[in-house]
Design a protein that fits this description.
Mean pLDDT: 80
Largest sheet: none
Radius of gyration: 68 Å
Shape: rod-shaped
CATH class of the domain at 9-113: Mainly Alpha
Strand content: under 5%
CATH topology of the domain at 9-113: PWI domain
Helix content: over 70%
Number of strands: 0
Length: 254
């Protein structure tokens, strides 16, 4: 234990620090810890100490929690003095100012929770709901896009089938047209052949009829009234002319 002299020296030193140190005005107000839900504030205490020290410190965090749980009406100034050795004077003052304002607001809240935390929680829930809605919208959009792509693929398949059927019909139609044209050409060719055959037969018939008529004239003792080309050529030849001239001369001399 400590002697009365030591307690007096500690008390005197504490009083001296209380006069020398700077404290926030909010520390003048008292907090009834029975009206505060400390469990909702403990996460903030650990986070704030880590921010001020630049690292986690479970010892300091546990020290602060013990100070708040040890007394129904904790003394914030003594807490700041005790934290100075851990956080230094400036950080201890900043930390206690923030902590005490939270405790005062929690004390005034019917729920015992700082309204700031309630608003933050609402924002978190709102953001979470928005994220869920956004995810839901993304899923719906993905499903819709998937359905649209499936419909488009189905339409493409139908168009390809339709083009294939149309191409087949066109090919068959062209084939029929080619066959029809071929038949028409063959018919036209056969028609010309028949016409030429008729002409040839007609020519042969005329020639045969002329031959028959000549034969009849010869058999009846009549000469052909017309001379052949060969006879005409002989009658018109120079030898015949000379012979005729000689015959005329002989007749005159006689």
């Amino acid at each position: 234990g400590t002697s009365a002299d030591q307690d007096t020296r500690f008390s005197d030193k504490e009083k001296k620090l209380l006069k020398q140190m700077k404290f926030s005005e909010s520390l003048n107000a008292k907090v009834d810890m029975n009206k505060v839900k400390l469990d909702t504030i403990k996460p903030w205490i650990g986070k704030r100490i880590t921010e001020l020290l630049g690292m986690e410190d479970d010892v300091v965090e546990e020290f602060v929690n013990n100070q708040l749980e040890a007394d129904t009406w904790p003394d914030p100034r003594k807490m700041q003095i005790n934290l100075t050795g851990f956080l230094n004077g400036k950080n201890a003052r900043v930390f206690m100012t923030d902590l005490w304002e939270l405790l005062l607001s929690a004390q005034e809240s019917p729920s015992g929770i700082p309204p700031k935390f309630i608003e933050q929680k609402k924002e978190e829930l709102k953001k979470k709901m928005e994220d869920q809605e956004r995810v839901g919208d993304m899923i719906k959009k993905f499903e819709k896009d998937k359905e649209d792509r499936e419909k488009e693929r189905k339409k493409d398949r139908e168009r390809r089938k339709s083009r294939s059927r149309s191409h087949t019909r066109d090919r068959r139609s062209r084939s029929r047209d080619r066959h029809r044209d071929k038949r028409d050409k063959e018919k036209e060719r056969d028609k010309y052949k028949d016409h030429d055959s008729d002409k040839v037969r007609e020519k042969h018939t005329k020639r045969d009829s002329r031959s028959k008529s000549k034969g009849k004239l010869v058999s009846n003792g009549h000469s052909s009234p017309t001379k052949t080309k060969k006879e005409k050529s002989r009658s018109c030849s120079p030898k015949n002319d000379v012979r005729k001239s000689e015959e005329k001369t002989n007749l005159k001399n006689s």
